[in-house]
């Protein structure tokens, strides 16, 4: 296809800040329709980005025959029904993380893809960061030797979409399902998805809203590698603290900022490439790369990454993490 006609369902922060402005600049993409339960907002954004079709109901948007794909950026509890409806309408799907609230809901969605040509991708933008891509190539080149440990974290200054993310029946969980799942995906992706064998988690609900606002998690894999992930909302910091440190037996690599230390003739040497952009630029480019990848998969330019099958594996780990926090003990994965 020469032009991919895309519809956007859900016009919250990420659609306004990333999806709409970025897709509007793709030469081979036409934003053909948008939809939001707040119709006045949808109409305003439709006028701003010259979108020909504006809807309140996603079913009306999916009925458009010219649509090739949709981006689903609605609260998590709606992903299941909207994604299945989109699959039945034969629209390729990019669903913002997480695909669903639980592994069972995720499997239910992915089953609907059987015997179809529909491509479903889950939005995991951290793996599309330019510095993360460089980091993965460095790891796979053996530059820090055999990796044995990853330490990742995200302490967020200001929480986004707080109106629903602290309501468990809508979000499925708290800060781990919001931020931690992105770091889980990044860590697993960097190492080509080693199988997790057990998890231990501690969650804190400091604001007493019924979901965790701070989480610390230990994950062990069948290869002997370990990962720790800490996440928190509404911290008194100058800006978000986001990091991913990768430890090998011959050096250390990390992102945000990108840095590589490697043993050379017994000495630890900084071999970091030149700066590849500001924090803001890297964040924006992660979404640009993600959207470009999705469009490329639809048009046959590249294989699909961050698939529904990957989401099932990650959500099984997430379910175990929440069980571990609830039971206050280690939980084994099958």
TrEMBL record:
Q: Where is the Gfo/Idh/MocA-like oxidoreductase N-terminal domain?
A: 5-123
Q: Supply the SUPFAM superfamilies for this chain.
A: Glyceraldehyde-3-phosphate dehydrogenase-like, C-terminal domain, NAD(P)-binding Rossmann-fold domains
The record's annotation in InterPro entries points to: Gfo/Idh/MocA-like_OxRdtase_N, Gfo/Idh/MocA_Oxidoreductases, GFO_IDH_MocA-like_dom, NAD(P)-bd_dom_sf
- One protein family per Pfam: GFO_IDH_MocA
Q: Which Gene3D superfamilies match?
A: Dihydrodipicolinate Reductase, domain 2, NAD(P)-binding Rossmann-like Domain
Give GO terms: molecular function aspect only: nucleotide binding
The residue ranges of the GFO/IDH/MocA-like oxidoreductase domain are: 135-252
What name goes with this protein?
A: Oxidoreductase domain protein
